[in-house]
Amino acid sequence: MSAAGARCGLFSPSLSGALDAGRAQARGAALRAGASVDQLNGVQQRAHAKAASVPCGSKDLTTAANRVRKAFEGYALLQRMNYPGDRASWQADRASSATIPFWRLSQTAGFGGDRLVFGLAGRNTELLAVATFADGARPYTARLVMRDPSLTLGPYLRARAGGGLADNAAPRAASRMFAPETRDAAPAPTLLPTGAKTGMSFRFPREAADAIAQLDPREAITIEFVIQARGGQEIVRRAYVEVGDFAAGRAFLRVS
To answer: Do 14 and 60 sit in the same domain of this protein?
Structure first.
């Protein structure tokens, strides 16, 4: 229905966002169940071809669109959603505030004694990594590292053999890196990991969020925090986040 809706202008932007969220979540579930990307792309192409062959004024299409609108009435009332993955979950919250920044779509992670919250925050759904460090470390920069689809044939899923989430991150030679646009040494308390008093926040470009949404839900991305040691050498601490249903959660936020 997404393809037919876009071609014929059947649905509002909000309802289209709901359809996008459902499509992204279904795609993620199919990949986790063992379907290949080629299989899913084939299904999508056939669906688009079918949608293109149906006249916009078709009685069957009108009936189907009305059913979608009816189902959307209940979905539109949802304010929060949980998107569980293989090893981590995304929490989505459609509420917003003009004055208090808080997480709209987030995943938490621990790395060593340090803790991270990563995701989309604030009314402008900015892509943030907010971390607190057990030893009071103050990274001078951060790097967001993820697989580059143009350099690979698919995700690296070694963790299915018993490893941790880090094993599902692509090697550096097959990855792309995003640098932060801003660094905040005193992020809003509402963005800090639970119980933390201090932390560091790094905002990444919107292009990075678009790139995450294109990845396989089973793979991991890496957030590297770079610390300048007393001797001048760099120390890098790495946190890992599961891609999961990031795309579905982001689409859910567009529902109003």
So the answer is: yes
